[in-house]
């Protein structure tokens, strides 16, 4: 069955639509395949990275990168102030008030440091800190006041200090003054894990569905041509 010149533009347009739809479904299948791979990666045990300086992974006034979260960092400086963060939950599911200090870093800027659950005095002088870097909290856990944080988020304090603040916060593992470690009850948190919604086989099933749809889109034009050809032959 020949195609007339009048039908040619519509046929080309239909072919382009088929190719675009097919490419879209194939791309969606690969996207779901990537998600399945990410889900498998998250099931692997967390591998600790070497301790590095805070300024190697974070810059005051800029958002944390994904790679910087969970990094064990070290830095030094002087505490400017101390706050209470209520209704915080540790790795064991225990809720309590956390003591959070704002420390002016020697290299510039200031950062929130989660110090303890007990009401400890703010140390004076230069303090050396080692701890894990976490992303800021986004949900309020309590009301905000001059001595209380509704969530652990430097954005709440930006207007109160001249220094640029580092994004996120550090969960202190140790604090030392002149080489002597402060004897404080420390908090424990598991490394933050990015979440991938769903289950592994759910993502694989979507891969199959998207690629089957791509095959259907490719098959339909040939099926329609075959039906028309059969009708044409019967008519003759």
TrEMBL record:
GO cellular component: plasma membrane
Pfam families the record matches: SURF1 (PF02104)
Keywords: Cell membrane, Membrane, Transmembrane, Transmembrane helix
CDD domains, per database record: SURF1 (cd06662)
Membrane topology per record: Multi-pass membrane protein
UniProt feature coiled coil, ranges: none
Residue stretches spanning the membrane: 12-33, 204-223
Protein name: SURF1-like protein
Organism from which the protein derives: Actinobacteria bacterium BACL2 MAG-120802-bin41
């Amino acid at each position: 069955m020949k195609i007339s010149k009048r039908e040619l533009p519509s046929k080309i347009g239909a072919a382009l639509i088929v190719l675009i739809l097919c490419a879209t479904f194939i791309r969606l299948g690969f996207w779901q395949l990537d998600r399945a791979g990410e889900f498998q990666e998250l099931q692997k045990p967390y591998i600790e990275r070497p301790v590095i300086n805070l300024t190697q992974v974070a810059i005051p006034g800029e958002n944390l990168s994904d790679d910087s979260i969970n990094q064990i960092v070290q830095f030094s400086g002087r505490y400017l102030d101390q706050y209470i963060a209520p209704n915080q939950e540790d790795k064991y599911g225990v809720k309590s008030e956390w003591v959070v200090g704002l420390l002016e870093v020697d290299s510039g800027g200031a950062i929130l440091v989660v110090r303890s659950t007990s009401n400890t005095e703010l140390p004076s002088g230069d303090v050396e800190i080692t701890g894990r870097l976490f992303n800021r909290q986004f949900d309020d856990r309590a009301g905000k006041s001059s001595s209380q944080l509704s969530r652990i988020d430097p954005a709440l304090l930006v207007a109160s200090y001249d220094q640029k603040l580092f994004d996120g916060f550090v969960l202190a593992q140790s604090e030392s003054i002149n080489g002597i470690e402060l004897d404080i009850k420390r908090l424990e948190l598991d490394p933050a894990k990015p979440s991938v919604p769903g289950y592994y086989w759910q993502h694989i099933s979507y891969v199959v569905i998207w690629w089957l749809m791509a095959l259907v889109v490719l098959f339909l034009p040939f099926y329609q041509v075959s039906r028309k050809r059969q009708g044409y032959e019967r008519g003759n």
